[in-house]
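Run log, item B.
One chain of 355 residues. Sequence copied directly from the ordering sheet:
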Amino acid sequence: MVDLIEIKEGKARILVPKTEWKKGPNSAKVPVFYNPTMEMNRDVSVALLKAVRRKEMKVLDGLAASGIRGIRFALEIGEMEITLNDRNKKALKLMEKNADLNRVDVKITGKNLNTLLSDSSFDYIDIDPFGSPAEFLDCASRAIRNGGILAITATDTAALCGVYPKVCYRRYMAWPEHNWCMHEIGLRILIGSAVRIGGRNDISLKPLLAYSTDHYFRAYLMAEKGARKADAVLENVGMLEFDDISWKNGGDIGPMWLGALFDEMVLSRMKTEDFFGSKRRMEKFMDIWKEEWKMPPCYHELSYLSSFLHISQPPIRHVIERLKSMGFEATRTHCSPTGIKTDASAEEVLETMRE
């Protein structure tokens, strides 16, 4: 029998295996997986689901493990039909204990996720695997109801960021790039793959919120059914070409999502809660998301450009203010603490850095 300890996250009290949890992806060998690093992931999911919630929503946590996300939904949002699913028998027993511990009314199943998605439909589907969500995207795109939300996490960042390009192509049918912008490229490849798979099923999947942090990518995609809507959203999928300092349309990197990563209305409705363990960090991210939602894809990395120019890295605030004084749009990006999103060219950014 695995030793359990009780932890608190949000409003939930959860029993998890007693082990040494570390920052990062942790190990898949843990009897029932729980990762404290993903607390912000779960805090954001509560805030977003609250912001878009409709009455009588049917919600699925498809790879629930300890059940913490779905139990938090029940405690912190409520008034939803929530299903926790995991084919791991040890996880099933632990989810039952945790549901009883928190006195929440949730349905618990132990099916293969693709089988469950083929048999049922949901208004919100959360897929947070250890690794890639690729194997579930087809069934999930068909199981999501019109107007529903598909939430996916990918922790196979080495593949999506170009360390293992053949793995990325095999899983997502896209070629990555291992450069200064690889985290945004990887995120956009993940979204582009989901959008193309949805299009194959005459379903439009469009990001409401997508971000890169820590060891994972996360995307919330709103589903709308219809061939015309699928055609329209697919117009935002394309390729990019990179040189030493910049990028342009076309080329051989991708296909990837080239549209907005954020929905302004959803961001305006999202609120942090005092019981969020990541409240301060999440607020910092939300401030940046609200700046960069309207900016074009990809960013300029000041540390890389400074090395290119053989100069000391200037303060990011100075470069942004200088670009704005020249009439350009310029913001920070959540993908890098020294990255700048702007409609200025790379040459114009370099000129501000030389001053």
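Observations after the first pass:
- The domain at 4-292 is CATH 3.40.50.150 (Rossmann fold).
- The mean pLDDT is 95.
Flagged for discussion on Thursday.
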